[in-house]
Write a structure and sequence with these properties.
The complex is a heterotrimer. Chain A has 17 helices and 23 strands. By secondary structure, chain A is an alpha+beta fold. In chain A, the strands form seven sheets. A seven-stranded mixed β-sheet of chain A has the order 8-9-10-1-11-19-12, sandwiched between helices. Chain A has a four-stranded antiparallel β-sheet with strand order 4-5-7-6. A four-stranded antiparallel β-sheet of chain A has the order 14-18-13-17. Chain B is 72% helix and 0% strand. Chain B contains 14 helices and no strands. Chain B is globular and about 85 Å long. Classes of the chains: A alpha+beta, B mainly alpha, C mainly alpha. At the B-C interface, helix 1, helix 6, helix 7, helix 8 and helix 11 of B face helix 3, helix 4, helix 5, helix 7 and helix 8 of C.
Chain lengths: 548, 325, 277
């Protein structure tokens, strides 16, 4: 985890990381390469075979692929036995610990600690965890998963290929992830031996590891359904769970990997970011997952608290989505005018209080496959005004809901900026909790404020762009893009796939109705001295964290 | 009417009332836009999957059929499964209900002390300085929205003085009583609001009793004030005061939505706000029925207290009220 | 809360201090209402305009600082008053008209079991439940809190107006008017209304605070107006996060709400006391 006291330091690390990724593009997609390069595959093997040490140490993956992180880490201190960490996260009284059904943030965090995954998207990298290797055949029509040795569930049973087949079946059958697993032919899968599973594809997927397993591949025991008393193979055991209240986890003493430092983790459900921060201030919790920019500013300089800002894989895409099939945005000039009229830096300064990297109308900045060659869009109000006038556009409505804090704020400021280009924007505030209840409305909204977890470009486009994208709310799906996307997904060679990803991003940048004005680092806060908290997608992961 | 008959007739009326309210609640939840199937499936679901789930959840049945099914099972004590997720409604609401009940019991005690104590002090000598200060103070408090009062308490006691936590974090696997400090600010807010309201009602009763000839006579005869209080004032106001306090029960259970939200107290009010957003018919119904049952039970108790004693609290129609939301 | 309405009779002696209270509260109330209604005309900045750094302290960016979008807090107060004052006012009037019309007519035959049953159903539903159900059924609109206020206040207004008018309906003047052959409408206008006008007015005054509470609760829960329109409760709920950076962003609107409801309640109580005498 990158703990940045100052924004400059953060940016420096991000840039370093970005340059690294752009130049050698090994990063997370290198698991299919040979052992010469420092691959996550190798690192997983290393940590699996290393004897558990009393003190947590940086894993090989961190040392090899994220030098910026590794250098920032001091020699870990020994944590006193009995140390407990209390973490506040968004939770709902209606959530469950069924990994295929839950939508809760707290629940995901608990699941990532109780279970191991085939692949984890950790700090923006794809890291093999339970898998020793995940290899495609030459045309990506069949994948072979080989498990590591020695992993055991909390009840002592070894983790086997049968458990993997059952777990993947759970996800494939679930409404939340079924679409993602559509290409995987689970009925045709073969358990070769305890450690080997062969998965045929219905259509070639060269990006199965990142785009499918990298999203969620927790492995539960074969046949398990007793959600709430979950048994996994992860670094922590579930002691108790109460929806909406929280969960208590204790260290798994027989963990196959590096033993975690904290004896117990207590996850506390707090829905409101401001309340989470207040709870941290009053000492009721040690770590607040997700605080607002204003909240962070209010504790800046308070030495009794630490702020953690995470870019890249831990960041959130801040954007506006314009439906390119609905007037007036079916006119490419209007979309272009919006992109020219918007003042991205002002949005960052006001809405995010300066905490964000400027966006260039593409997802995935800081992650593999991002296109750095396209120049940053510059504000040009005069051209925008002319384009709007030529298209006859003088007003439109922007729908906004605070799906994360600040979406409504950004839309209100956007309206002020459009006024400078001669266009009146009415902000229609919607209810966040029910925003996605009515899909028809979301897909037929001409303009709306939106956020996305920043995922790698291939993953993002598979879900959010093209005619196969189940949540393509901008409606951008030209035949060229669709063909390019299918071609990219079927490509096995990583470098080749990443360069195809960059081309697809260029199409999004120039043609899609997708305005990305910022990448906002996820802001968490904690008591001082908590080091090396990782982020799995956006969820904090404390298996290698310790108190300095 | 004999007390047993009165009890039975009141019970019958209360049950009829519950039935009527359940229809009203069910109807308003039913006609809300959106439905649980899309809520469960989230943003990536296809319409086919949504349709399949709708069928599975029985959302395709007519509202009348669903209402009848629900009524039948509820009458048998089975609240059913919640529409979103596979948990039983009871397991979803039991903990928040318990938390709200704990908050309500503690707040009822403090509210009673504030209302009775303050009412006696203010009403004993109507028109004196204490009475006027309390009168203006309580009127001002009941006039302010709860989030303003709660906000004032938070800024003063949590941030400025740093005495208590601004958040009501209930310990995992425990109850609010395991961490009594979680209750301080919510109870204080509720006590200020409901206590002010109750205080005004009790004060009126005491003032009326104070003006009775036998009280005046006792005072003129030089009976000590504590004795006047014990022998004359308290007995004559006890029954209607109990009624006043019984009438505060509905507010303690159902009116604390804002207070629970402000302090992030994991109670029934917070759950209600969330579940209404999720359009979960069964959970919202259950919460609404618990709240209305509490209201109706409060009425019933107040009514029976009135019946048990000769004195009746004057009917609510006689003077304007500042009813609390 | 649905307790029997039985406000303490205001202390009858000390009329001098009473008048002082009435004068002071009346002056505050008038000042706040004037500020709310005419505020937009002399606000330093247009509604919802970002003028500088967000959550800046008192000083360079206006004497109350700026809010979370860098807008002048003082200007926002001036722009947000109209909705905060007028919506509850409209709601109160609507509730009074609806409730009192039914109540005055019902006063002719005070025992009406069907009406009582309907009123009881409403009373048995917590006000916040009614508000939340309506908000989610009809979405964000100024009319929803108004409707909620009308529904919530209806039973109390009906009962009060019915009770107040029952005496008048049964009076000997009405009896004589009937003998003269006057219509019910004439009797209502000439005999009943003049007798209940005072009590109904004070009832309305006390309902105003309740209306403000329900309407602001809706805004506080996020169902307030969309920018650039604003109201005081929305300003509080939206700036809670930044309270430690600029306290005035929430303290100023909170103070304004208090300055609106507290004097209104005190004044209505004085009025009720006067009528009682």
């Amino acid at each position: 985890m990158k703990i940045c006291g100052k924004r400059i330091a953060c940016l420096g690390i991000v840039v370093a990381l970005a340059v690294l990724l752009a130049s050698c593009s090994s990063g997370g997609d290198s698991s299919t390469e040979t052992e010469e390069s420092p691959t996550p595959s190798a690192s997983a093997t290393v940590s699996a075979s290393t004897a558990p040490s009393a003190v947590p140490s940086p894993t090989a993956s961190d040392a090899s692929t994220a030098p910026a992180t590794a250098t920032a880490v001091a020699e870990p201190a020994v944590v006193p036995t009995g140390a407990m960490l209390r973490i506040a996260a968004l939770s709902s009284p209606a959530d469950t610990l069924n990994p295929a059904a839950t939508t809760g943030q707290l629940e995901y965090a608990v699941l990532f600690h109780v279970y191991d995954s085939l692949v984890l998207q950790k700090d923006g990298e794809f890291v093999l965890q339970l898998a020793e290797s995940i290899e495609p055949n030459a045309d990506a029509t069949e994948w072979t998963i080989t498990l590591i040795e020695g992993a055991r569930f909390h009840d002592g049973r070894p983790v086997t290929a049968g458990d993997v087949a059952y777990s993947l079946g759970l996800f494939a059958a679930s409404p939340n992830f079924g679409q993602n697993y559509a290409a995987v032919d689970l009925e045709g899968s073969t358990v070769v031996d305890d450690r080997t599973l062969i998965l045929p594809m219905r259509s070639p997927r060269g990006d199965l590891l990142e785009a499918v397993f990298g999203q969620l591949s927790l492995i539960v025991p074969d046949g398990f359904t007793d959600w709430g008393s979950n048994i996994g193979s992860g670094p922590y055991k579930l002691v108790s769970f109460e929806p909406g209240v929280g969960a208590l986890l204790e260290r798994n003493p027989d963990y196959w990997g590096d033993p975690p430092a904290f004896d117990t983790l207590e996850f506390v459900g707090i829905a409101d970011p401001a309340t989470r921060l207040n709870a941290l201030r009053s000492g009721d919790i040690d770590y607040a997952w997700g605080i607002s920019a204003a909240g962070a500013a209010s504790i800046e300089g308070d030495s009794s608290l630490a702020i953690h800002r995470d870019s890249g894989g831990g960041s959130v895409i801040r954007g506006f989505v314009f439906n390119v099939n609905i007037p007036p945005f079916d006119n490419p000039d209007v979309v272009r005018a919006v992109k020219l009229a918007i003042d991205r830096q002002a949005l960052i300064d006001v809405v995010l209080l300066g905490n964000g990297e400027i966006g260039n109308d593409m997802p995935s900045k800081g992650l593999p496959g991002y296109n750095y060659s396209i120049p940053q869009v510059q504000r040009d109000v005069d051209t925008a005004r002319e384009l709007f006038a030529a298209a006859g556009v003088d007003s439109f409505t922007m729908r906004a809901a605070d799906l994360v804090p600040g979406i409504v704020d950004s839309s209100e400021l956007f309206a002020q900026q459009m006024a400078e280009a001669g266009v009146t924007v009415t902000v229609e505030e919607a209810d966040a909790a029910t925003y996605f209840n009515d899909f028809a409305a979301v897909f037929s909204t001409p303009a709306q404020g939106m956020y996305y977890i920043n995922r790698s470009a291939g993953v993002h486009m598979g879900s959010f762009s093209g005619s196969q994208g189940t949540f393509n709310i901008s409606g951008y799906a030209t035949p060229e893009f669709d063909a390019g996307l299918a071609d990219m997904q079927a490509t096995v060679n990583v470098d080749e796939r990443l360069s195809k990803t960059e081309e697809l991003l260029a199409m999004i940048h120039y043609e899609d109705g997708f305005v990305v004005w910022a990448f906002e680092p996820q802001i968490n806060a904690s008591i001082p001295g908590i080091e090396r908290v990782s982020l799995i997608q956006s969820s904090p992961y404390f298996a290698s964290a310790y108190l300095n | 009417m004999p007390i047993v008959l009165r009890l039975l007739s009141r019970l019958a009326i209360s049950l009829a009332l519950l039935l009527a309210v359940s229809i009203a609640v069910f109807a308003s939840v039913e006609i809300l836009p959106g439905d649980p199937a899309t809520t469960i499936l989230g943003r990536n679901a296809s319409p086919d999957r949504v349709d399949a789930l709708r069928e599975q959840l029985g959302l395709d049945n007519s509202p009348v059929v669903r209402y009848w099914d629900w009524l039948k099972s509820t009458a048998q004590g089975d609240l059913g499964l919640q529409a979103t997720g596979n948990r039983s409604v009871w397991s979803t609401i039991s903990t928040p209900l318990r938390n709200t009940a704990i908050l309500a019991v503690v707040a009822f005690a403090t509210t009673s002390i504030a209302a009775v104590g303050g009412g006696l002090i203010a009403g004993r000598r109507p028109g004196n300085r204490t009475d006027r200060v309390l009168s203006i103070g309580t009127l001002s408090i009941v006039a302010m929205p709860e989030f303003v009062i709660a906000g004032l308490l938070i800024s003063l006691f949590a941030f400025r003085l740093d005495w208590v936590s601004s958040v009501s974090l209930v310990p995992l696997g425990g109850t609010p009583l395991d961490a009594p400090s979680t209750l301080i600010l919510p109870v204080a807010t509720i006590t200020l609001v409901a206590g002010s309201y109750g205080l005004r009602l009790v004060r009126a009763l005491v003032a009326e009793a104070s003006a009775q000839p036998f009280v005046e006579a006792a005072r003129l005869a030089g009976v000590r004030e504590t004795a006047v209080l014990r022998r004359h004032l308290l007995p004559s106001v006890a029954a209607p005061t109990a009624q006043v306090l019984a009438f505060s029960v509905p507010y303690l259970i159902g009116g604390t939505v804002i207070v629970e939200q402000v302090f992030a107290y994991p109670g029934l009010g917070s759950l209600l706000v969330e579940q209404i957003a999720r359009r979960d018919v069964t959970v919202v119904e259950a919460i609404a029925m618990i709240m209305t049952t509490a209201v109706i039970a409060g009425f019933l108790i107040a009514d029976l207290l009135g019946a048990l004693t000769a004195r009746h609290i004057p009917r609510s129609d006689s003077r304007p009220s500042a009813a609390l939301p | 809360m649905t307790a029997p309405s039985l406000l303490a009779p205001a202390p009858a002696r000390h009329s001098r201090s009473l008048n002082l209270v009435a004068v002071v509260t009346g002056a505050i109330l008038i000042a706040v209402v004037v500020l709310a209604v005419f505020g937009p005309w002399f606000a330093p900045h247009p509604a919802g305009q970002t003028i500088g750094r967000p959550l800046a302290n008192t000083g360079a960016d206006g004497w109350l600082g700026t809010d979370r979008l860098g807008r002048d807090v003082w200007s926002q107060i001036l722009h947000g008053g109209r909705r905060t004052v007028i919506i509850p006012l409209v709601a109160t009037l609507a509730a009074t008209v609806a409730g009192d019309t039914v109540g005055l007519l019902a006063g002719r035959r005070p025992r009406n079991r069907i009406l009582d049953a309907v009123l009881m159903v409403i009373i048995a539903m917590p006000a916040m439940l009614i508000l939340l159900l309506l908000l989610h059924r009809f979405g964000k609109s100024a009319w929803v809190p108004i409707a909620a206020v009308v529904v919530v206040a209806f039973p109390y207004s009906v009962r009060y107006a019915r009770s107040a008018s029952a005496k008048a309906w049964g009076s000997s003047f009405v009896e004589q008017a009937r003998l003269r052959g006057e219509s019910n409408g004439w009797i209502l206008r000439h005999e009943v209304l003049p007798n209940v006008a005072g009590p109904v007015l004070s009832d309305t005054g006390l309902r105003f605070a309740t209306s403000v509470q329900l309407v602001t609760a809706a805004s506080f829960l996020g169902f307030g107006p969309s920018a650039p329109a604003t109201d005081w409760a929305t300003q509080i709920s939206k700036n809670l996060d930044g309270a430690s950076l600029n306290l005035w962003a929430i303290a100023a609107p909170a103070l304004m709400i208090a300055l609106l409801t507290v004097p209104a309640n005190l004044l209505a109580d004085r009025l009720a006391a006067r009528i009682e005498q």
